[in-house]
Amino acid sequence: MASATVQLKVRPEDLSQVPKAGERIPDPGIMVIFGASGDLTKRKLLPSLFHLEQDNLLPKNFAIVGVARRPLGNEFAEDMRQGIVEFGGVKADDPKLDEFIQKVSYYALSFDDASHYAGLKAELDRIAQEKNIGPDRLFYLATAPEYFTPIVENLGAQGMAQPEKGRVGVVIEKPFGHDLDSARELNHQVNAVFHENQVFRIDHYLGKETVQNILVFRFGNGIFEPIWNRNYIDHVQITAAETLGVEGRGPFYEKAGALRDVVQNHVMELLSFVGMEPPSSFESEAVRREKVKVWRAIPNIPILNAVRGQYGPGVIDGKKVAGYRDEERVNPESGTETYAAVRLEIENWRWAGVPFYLRAGKRLKKRATEISIQFKQPPLLIFNRMQSSGPCTEIQPNLLTIRIQPNEGIALRFGAKVPNTPNMSVCPVNMDFDYASAFGTSAATGYERLLLDAMLGDQTLFSHRDGVETTWALYTPILEAWAAKNPEVFPNYFAGSWGPDCGNRLLERDGRSWRNNIG
Ligand code: BG6
User: Fold this and answer.
1) Residue 277 gets which letter from DSSP?
2) Global pTM exceeds 0.90
3) Could you name the CATH architecture of 207-508?
């Protein structure tokens, strides 16, 4: 396929109009991270907090207290320093790093031992007094999910959830439940202690710039919304493809699988941004209400419209990799899916009849998260009969691709006349907006924005209890059907491929195919 690319650039004089950092700074407070000895704290949370510090977005009087079971002392802060350098792309001699590390301390506690929480409360009061910090607290639960409830209940029992003054919130990592019943129960337990406006159910995809940019693209521009519907759109594909395997998280992944780990949350969040009606404002309630409306308009997904796969050994980037069943701490006969694909529809006036195809998988050919929106062909293809003699054989439909990662951007494919050909030969070309080259910055991990919003009490980019229950309600019947019947043919795709045949058949049945030329 011949193709040409048009690069869109932002003019430097326009960039200078972008508001500078420092506009929204939380009040002085303490962030308490439960499960602080885990990977997430070192790889994502502390580097992101340090990026906020570099951008002058943290209050001057601020403390971070890591909490976990292991007895650790100062080595915790030093370990975090290493994490910031290694995973945050920060220079070891960054002038702000020493000062930042002074704000980090550690408290050892057993999450489910109620008698330990009075000590934690006293420790936070001591730090607050010493560092002249007010009553704001943000509790971040980055533990295994079975500890979410005991931690919340113990914080409540010590009166740490509802202070008389200040802002107190709780951030809860995914997985938020493992099916509808467990999500409901967890919501009930959390809301018995924290008011819903204190609860931040985090999905780091919502912190990604390009995910937020979907709303800007749709509702900050006048020309796309009129064609954003069933009259012009043929179908939508959402792909979340990873080349990584389970990376030592075998026991977690064995219980999760691709549908629970990525589709029910990250992919459904992307779908809601593509599918929602324009909210009346960019305020938490307005945005979250529209998202839930989209999910609620999805009818039950027939089991035939959901397929699963598991990778066997294969080659990724020229290197041999093991199959899932040979990964560390994975059952050698595991029936857990590492790939899931779903076909669904949204039954409302905007979308009726437009299929949405979703897929997520590990050890696929390429790391790429992308949404592609394929438009219908023009009603009469007057140039098609001339294609056989030109460089392109068939006129291709317009395609809008939103690249979430790794090469964040948006491209629009359209047909253009090939110059200097006597016939009307049409080839596809791309108008391509690339975040990095347009703005000269690379997008952050997603956690920076979300941590800041949680400290500020802004819930717009966090999931509401109704939202998580609605998406679980959609996927629980599929998970139950899968659990009741182990697939006979696992593994059914090679690591380094685009997934199992059943995934391809899901689209072939409709006369379509996955867009694999992505990223
Ligand atoms: C996490 C999943 O939520 O998202 C992981 O638990 C997955 O299994 C990760 O690898 C993908 O995130 P990202 O930002 O790398 O696309």
Assistant:
1) P
2) yes
3) 2-Layer Sandwich (3.30)
